[in-house]
Write a structure and sequence with these properties.
Layout (H helix, E strand, L loop, with lengths): L1 E2 L5 E2 L6 H5 L3 H7 L38 E6 L4 E8 L16 E4 L9 E6 L3 E2 L2 E2 L13 E6 L4 E13 L5 H5 L5 E13 L4 E16 L5
Parallel strand pairs: 4-5, 6-11
Antiparallel strand pairs: 1-2, 3-4, 3-9, 5-6, 7-8, 9-10, 10-12, 11-12
Pfam families: Sortase
InterPro entries: Sortase, Sortase_dom-sf, Sortase_F
Protein name: Class F sortase
Amino acid sequence: MSITSTGRCRRSSGSGLSAGLAACALFVAALSGCTTSDTEGPPQPNVVQQAPGPVVDTGTAPGSIAATRPVRLSIPAIDVDSDLMNLGLDASGALEVPPSGFPAGWYSGSPVPGELGPAVIAGHVDWGGKPGVFFRLHELAPGDEIYADRTDGLTEVFRVASVERYAKDAFPTAKVYGDIDHPGLRLITCGGEFDTAARSYRDNTVVFADLVGTRGANAN
C-alpha cells in the first residue's frame, strides 16, 4: 500500500504487514470509531451497550481473505461479545471501517488471530449517541483475556499486555502496526476528549495483547 496525496491507503506490490498497514496507520487512526453518526455527542458512561449485530461481509475482493478468518470476539472483562465483519479497502483505496456501532471488524490484510504478527481489529466507541462495541475498551487492564473464535473451530486466547492512548497527530505507527516475532492482537478505537466542533475524538485507544493459548478440537 502507499499513501496518496489525500492520505488514503492504496494497495502496492509490496508484501508484509508492516509495509502495508504502516503506510495507512495514520489514516486508520483518524477513522476507527472516531466520529458519531449525528449531533448528539458521545454517550454517557451509564448507557447500556446494544446487543451485537449479525456477521457482516463487506464484499472484499475474492481471494483477498484467507480461508480461515475470525468470526467472533469476546472480552469478558468489559462485557464484549461481538461478531466480526471483514474490513478491506474501499473503491477509493481507503481502509474500510464498520458501518455502525456494532459489530467490530477484522482487517483482512492483517494476520488471522493466532498467526504470526499483529492481527488488527477496529470498532467504534459510540454511534448515534449510543455506546459502540468498544465503548469500554479503555477499561481493560494488563492480564485481562481476549478470545477470538475462528472459522476452523479454534479459539485463540490473548492476554492484554498494555492499554495505551495516543493523540491522533502522534500515532506510533511502527509500534501498533509493525512486524512482531509472535502472534499478537491490536484492538483500536477512539478515546480522550470529544471535539464537538470536529465531531470526533482527539485520541486513539489501542490495546496490545499477546497470544497465550489455543482452545478447540484441533488445538495441540
